[in-house]
Amino acid sequence: WEGQVWDADIEVPVVTVDALIETYGVPTFAKIDVEGFEDEVLAGLSRPLPALSFEFTTIARAVAYRCLDRLTTLGFDGFDVALGDDKSMTFQRWMPAADLATHLHELPHAANAGDVYCVTRDREASTAP
């Protein structure tokens, strides 16, 4: 969305991920793709899930770094990335958040976007009620 001008405000209803979990239970996988507000969505999550992904863009890398920080705090401990529309994992192994942050930092601007995949390898902790 580089170069886009959004000059109108709209009100939308919101709900936290925690509230959705309370209503529907713990998902096996959650995908977060909210056009630059991924870190705000993760602020409404207070526990790890078995797995999730969030979209990132090279024009807003700081959002991705905040997401990685939040997810690490919650107990996520394995990270990989798929660039663009290619859903194959770049590293084919789970790596620490700091290593993934370094990779995101080094991506060329033209890489544009992708999805970061995250897991908690201690599945018992992430699925407990």
From TrEMBL:
Example of a GO MF term: methyltransferase activity
Keyword Metal-binding among UniProt keywords: no
GO biological process: methylation
Stored Pfam families: Methyltransf_21
Keywords of the record: Methyltransferase, Transferase
Keyword Transferase in record: yes
Protein's recorded name: FkbM family methyltransferase
Species of origin: Micromonospora ureilytica
Taxonomic path: Bacteria, Bacillati, Actinomycetota, Actinomycetes, Micromonosporales
